[in-house]
Amino acid sequence: MKTWFHSWRAAVRIARRDAWRAKGRSSLVLAMIALPILGVSAADLTIRSSELSVSERLERSIGAADAAFTDPGFGGVAVFQAPEGDNAYPAKDVEDNVPWPSGTTDPRKAIPAGARWISDTQGAAKLTTVHGLLQTDVRELKADDPIAKGITTLLDGRYPQKADEVIATSAFLEKSGLSVGSTVSARNFDQPYRIVGSYELPDTLTAAQITALPGAFLAPYGKAAEKAGALAPGSTTSYLVQHAGGFTWNNVKEINAKGVTVISRAVLLDPPADSEVPLYQRENWRDYESSGAADAMLLASVATVVGLAMLEICLLAGPAFAVGARRSRRQLGLVGANGGSRSHIRAIVLSGGLVIGVAAAVIGTVLALILTLVLQPFLEDFMGQRFGAFDVRPLELLGIALLAVLTGLLAAIVPAVTASRQTVLASLTGRRGVRSTSKVLPVLGLVALLLGAAIALYGSVVTDQFVIVAGGSALAELGVVAMTPAIVGLFGRTGRWLPLSPRLALRDAVRNRGRTAPAVAAVLAAVAGTVAVATYTSSSDAQYRAEYSASLPHGAVSFFQMEEGGRDVPAVADAVQRYFSVETRADVSRVAVGKPGCPAWGGGAGCGQYEVMVPRANECPMWATTTDGSDPSEKFTAEQRRTMMREDWRCKQTSGGGGVYVDGGLLVGDARLLKVLGITDAGAAKALADGKAVVFSRPLVDKDGTLGIKQITDLKAAEKASAEYKPAPGKVSRIPTHLVPGAPKTYGLQVLMSPATAKAAGLTAVPVGAYFSTDALPGTEQRQKLDAELATLGAGIDLTVEEGYVSDDSIFLLALTVFAGLVTIGAAGIATGLAQADAEADLKTLAAVGAPPRVRRTLSGFQCGVVAAMGVVLGSVAGLLPAMGLRLTEERQQIRFHEQTIAEGWGGDLTPPYVPIVVPWETLAALLVAVPLGAALLAALVTRSKGAVARRAAT
User: Fold this and answer.
1) In sequence order, which residues have a C-beta less than 8 Å from that of residue 844 and are 6 or more positions away?
2) Which residue has the higher pLDDT, 437 or 909?
3) Measured between alpha carbons, how far is 917 from 881 in angstroms, rounded to an integer?
4) Sequence-distant (≥ 6) Cβ neighbours of residue 687 within 8 angstroms
5) What is the share, in percent, of the chain residues with pLDDT greater than 90?
6) Are 514 and 435 in contact (CB under 8 A)?
7) What is the pLDDT of residue 954?
8) CA angle 400–402–408, rounded 5-degree value
9) Nearest in space to 556 (alpha carbons), one of 709, 770, 758
C-alpha cells in the first residue's frame, strides 16, 4: 500500500510539472473540461437558488398571514380542495341534467371570531402614461400592514396613506415613462392618483402593477366605466387572515364545507397524507404529477446527454494527452530504464488527466460560484424573480466536479496504454516502432452499428416510440465511433489518386490511427448531431410550409378589437391606412346582444350572446344534438363514419382556414370585404345590396333559403337548457340568403351581411375591425411606426399581416453549422499538432534534402484537412439515420391519428398528413466543403514555414 501511494505521488508530481511546462496544451484541455463544469455548476446554483422553500413562497404570496381565504366560484356549496389550495371541486357530485354550480360567496363568513384580516383585491385597468395608455394590473392592498409583509418590496418613496395615493412597480414606471411624484389616471376615469413610491414583486419583477388602498380605485373605476358604456372590470379578492394557532388541515376542511378555499401556512409546512385529502379520493380524480416511468425516462435522457458530452470531450482531449505523452517519450523511457514498470508509465500519463481534471473541477466550480454571485441581479432580471437564499449544495457540486476528474482520466486512458506499450529503446531513441490496431474494436463497432440500426428501424416502423429510435440511433453512432480506426484505414486506399502533399498527409493519418481516430471520431460525433438536428429541422420546416394555412390573401392586413365595443376601431383603421400602402379598406362589425360594450362571447350584467343556427335537417348525423346527451356517432360503424366524412355535404367542414374571431364566422360589412378576400362570385355583391346574407357554408341555409340567427339574452336559462340537452331559449331572426357556389377560400368567414340587413333583422352591430388589401407588404419601419401608435391607444388589437410562411430555422441551422465547424477545426487542429510532433524527423529530413519551406505549411494544412474531411463525411452519413428514423416515426403516428379522426367522425382535414424527409443540402455543403477547407487553410496559416534543422538522432 505504501509503495503504491509513493509511486502515484511521484507520478502526480511528474504530471503536474509536465502540465506546467506545456502551458498552452494544458490550458486547452483544461478549458475543454472546465467550461462544461462551469456551465453545469452555475446552472445548478441558479436553479437551486431560484427554487423557493415553502416558507419563502408563502411570504411572497400571503405575507405574514396564517392563511388566505378565497371564493372558488361555486356559489357557496361545499367543496373539496387540494392541500395547496390551488384546486377545488364541488363536494357533491353534479348529476346529469343539473347545471354546474356557479356564483359567488363571501369568504369573510368563514373567518373565525377573533382573527385579524386584511383584503387583497386584484383587477386591471388601462392607465394613462407618457406614451398613451398601458394595460396595467391594479391591486388594492394595505401594503404597509404587518400581515402583508413580504408581498411587496418598497424600493423608493413610501406606502400610500390616502385614497388618492398609489405605489407602482419599477416595471410600470419604466414602461410608462412616469416616476415617483407623477400622477396617473385611467381611461374613462378622470380621478388622478399620485404615485408616492415604487416597489417590486419578488416573484414577478416584470409585472406592471399599481397598488392602492382597499376600495380606493377599482370600485369607483368600475362605476365610471359603466357610466361611459363599458363593462366594469372584473376583480378577485382574497382575505389574508392571522389567527392564533393557525389553520390545521381539519380547520381547512371545516372551512371548505362553507364553500371557501384556504391556502394555509400550517398545511403547506406540514401537508396531510393523500389518504386524508377527500379530493384525492374521488373516483375520477387524476394525479397529474409525473409518473415513475416518465422520471426514469428523463433520468435516462439526462444520463445519455451527459455521457455523450463526456465522450465528445474525451475524444477531443485524448489526442492532446497523446501529444504530451509523445513529447515526453524520452522522459518516460528514462523511467523505464531506471526500473519503472509499465504500470508506472501508465500512472504518469493517467496522472496528467487526473491533474488536469482536478484543476478543471476546482476552477470550474470556483468560477461558477463567483460568476453566479456577481451575475445574480442579471440572472434574477432574466428569470423575472428574486432568488431566495443563495443555495449551495456541496454534494451536487462535488458530483459535478467528479465528472471533470472522471473525464480527465477517461481522456488519458488510451494515451496511457499506448505509451506503456512502447519499449524503452524506442522511447529513448524516438523510434515509432510498429503500430498495430485492434481487430476486436471494429468488430464490436460493426455489431453495435447493425444492432442500433435494427433497433432504430424497429422503433420507427413497428412501435412508433421516439425513445427506441433515439436509443438505437445513439448505439449505432457509438458503433461508428468504434469502427473509426478501420474506416480511416479504408480512406487510405484513395491516396493513390492524390497529389504528393495530400497523399503524404493521408498516409500519415492512416499509419498513425491512434492519434487520427479519436480526432475523426470527435468530428464525427459533433457533425452527426448537427446533421441529425438539421435534417429533422429542415424536414419539419418543409412540413410546416406545406401545412401552412394563410389567414388572409398574400399581402392583406386585418385587425380585430373585441373589447369595449370596438371604440378604438376607427382610430386603428386610420392608423393602418396612414402607415401602410392600402389599396382597399373594408370596415367590419360584429353582432352584439345587450349593451354595445358587452364582450363578444357574452357574459356580464345585461349581456347575452347569439347563435348562428344549423337547421335540424342539415346537421351531420354524427354530430346531431341528442336529447339524452349521448354521442350519435356511436350508432355508426367506422366505415360508415368514413363514408359520411368524405361524401355527405353536411359533414364536410368548409371554414376555409384563417381566423374570424366571432361566433359562427358572422361579420357585418359590405362588398369591399369580398374584394379584399379575393371572392369573385358575381352574385354576392348584388345579394348584399338586395338585403340578403351571403353564406359560404351550405349547412347553414335552411330549405326555405333563409339563415337563422338566435339572440340569447338569458344566459342562465341557456345554461340550464344546455344541461338538459335542450335548445337555448331566444329570439330567432330569419334572413334571406345567397349561397356562394363551390368552395372558395374565405379565410374563416362564414356569413356576411350588410349593416342595413342586420338592422332590419333586429340585430345590433358594433365595430370590431377592418380588412385591407395592400399594394406592397409593409416594411419593418412601417410596422414599427404603426406599433408605436397602437401602443399610445392602449387598445387590445389582434393585428395580422399575411406574409406567407416564414421560417425561423435559418439562424438555428447556421448556429449548428458554426458549432460543428468549431469542433471540427479544434479536433483537427489537435490531431495536426500530434502529427507534427510525430513527423518532426521527417520534416527535418525534407528540409535537409532541399524541400522548399512551404512544404511544411502545405503538409500541415492537408493533415488538418484530411482529419476534418474524414470526420465530416462519416458524421454526415451517420447523422441521417436518427433524423430519418424520427421522421418515419412521426409519419406513422400522424397517419394513425388521421385515420382515427376519420374513423371516429371527429371532423377535420381529409387530406392525409404530409411528413417529408428533407436533406439540408446547404448545411451539408458547408460542412463537407467549407469546414475542411477552412480547417486546412487555418492550419497552414498558423504553421511556421521553417523549422530548426537538427542533427540526425542516433539509432
Assistant:
1) 947, 948, 949, 950
2) 909
3) 11
4) 693, 694, 737, 738
5) 20
6) yes
7) 46
8) 115
9) 770
